[in-house]
Amino acid sequence: MDLQQRLRNTFVEALALGEDVDVENLKYRDIDEWDSVGHMALVAAIEDEFDVQFETEQVIDMSSFKVSLDMLKDLGAE
Amino acid sequence: MSLLAPGARLVDATSGEVLAGPELRAAVDKISAELAALPAGVLFARTSVDVPSVLRYVAAFESGRAVALLDAGQDREVLLGLVARFRPAAVLGGEGEPPAGYTADWVREDADGVVPHPDLAVLLPTSGSTGNPKFVRLSRQAVLANAEAIAEVLGITADEVAPTSLPLHYSYGMSVLNSHLLRGATVVVEPTGVMGRPFWQAVEEHKITSLAGVPYHYEMLKRLRFDPAKYPSLRTITQAGGKLREDLVVEFNDKMLAAGGRMFVMYGQTEAAPRMATVPAEKLAEKIGSAGPALPGGAFSIRLEDGTETSVPDVVGEVLYRGPNVMMGYAESEEELAEPDSRGGLLETGDLGRLDADGYLFITGRLKRIGKVFGNRVNLDDLEQMLRGSGLDIGAAAAVPAGDKVVVWVENCAADTRKAAAKALSEKLHMHVSGFDVRDIDALPLLASGKIDYRSLEGRA
């Protein structure tokens, strides 16, 4: 499975998203599920799934699915 | 006495707009005039973390109109149920199709309605015994007395700058707003919260001086490796909304002290408008685990099982609180809005606890089975009832508190059903789905009496 698909699955699982959600275009606070509580669960889930650790600045800058994908790529996640 | 001191300022962090002093007063007075034209009855205010929500609340309070603060994200169905039960004069911030009997602007067409009791100022929702929300009735005097007492123990001056880190329809969020406006301080309205970049930009740009959080905020700040040294203006942090684990109290207190700042641990309930106790910052290190002494003007005592009260140290019983900030009572219907005070300044908290020799309260448990989900109180028996009524094919269920979450054990429950159950609870209670940890169990453990052994389940949660 490629990085984007795995990240998509991690989003769906961590935020308990419905099938109708356009995950790839999702932004922080667009939907009830991705509020500050959801953000904390999401960050922890991504770190577990990809065995990475985000810096404080990255956690608060992770404002969309796309941004988080770019961050993972920068961290060399596979 | 007014909630709004002459020097109070409101900053919109999103637009950068500032309403200060006479301008803020004029903005409030303009809305007050509009409210005066509405028919008799309580006002419902759909409340978000934005400037219009703050102005509506303050205008209602200042003009003596009883106002119920409701989560703007609340299910439409729940809102319509409340409208039917309480027949508000208007739903401020109402969106979409209005209910029958209301104009397009959500103003009640029928001019006749129950006039709320003249002392009644603010209504805050809490979960009722049937899972339907009911309101805590707070008098104008209780709200003002509590805001004044909080401002006193926290040493709030006109120089303080507080962000809205909590929802305003939540009693703690409301009290942060009240205690700062009352002292002519600045409130920065910022909707993204501590997990968003804009929040921290606002801290720097507006030189925010304090931060209020419930336990999960402190889990977030720990996750963010929060370092007060990076934010030279931010020198006060406060914590309430449930007991924070003691290692985090120590960690954050040490961090704040090292940066020349301070931390306050507090205790309250919506029924007390909401604050009852605060540990003075300089005593926190030696009173870890305590909720603090009663606020000025308030007093605690401990009620034993035989009904007698004591203030003898280290005796455990139900915590009773007496003070000017205690609610008038609850309201479950329109008629009850007109009722006078039914409590006489006494609040039976439902918490179990003890006082130490210095009068500091230590909470040890709950009389009823109550859990906290991200700072919000949830009746665990109600929650089990909701699952049974959810329409899901679900076996015997038992809910126990687990820190910031609730763990629900369900007999022989497939993964899909567990997910659906968590989602159903999240939607019904409008709390994040990660607050409900639904787990499978072969058989719930029972006591010799045949009742569910909740204590053993708590040990496994």
Automatic annotation (TrEMBL), chain A:
SUPFAM superfamilies: ACP-like
Highest taxon listed in the record's lineage: Bacteria
Protein name: Acyl carrier protein
Lineage: Bacteria, Bacillati, Actinomycetota, Actinomycetes, Pseudonocardiales
Automatic annotation (TrEMBL), chain B:
A GO term for molecular function: acid-thiol ligase activity
Gene3D superfamilies membership: 3.30.300.30, N-terminal domain of ligase-like
PROSITE patterns: AMP_BINDING
Residue spans crossing the bilayer: none
Pfam entry (one): AMP-binding
Superkingdom: Bacteria
Domain AMP-dependent synthetase/ligase per the UniProt entry, residue ranges: 112-330
UniProt name for this protein: AMP-binding protein
Provenance organism: Lentzea alba
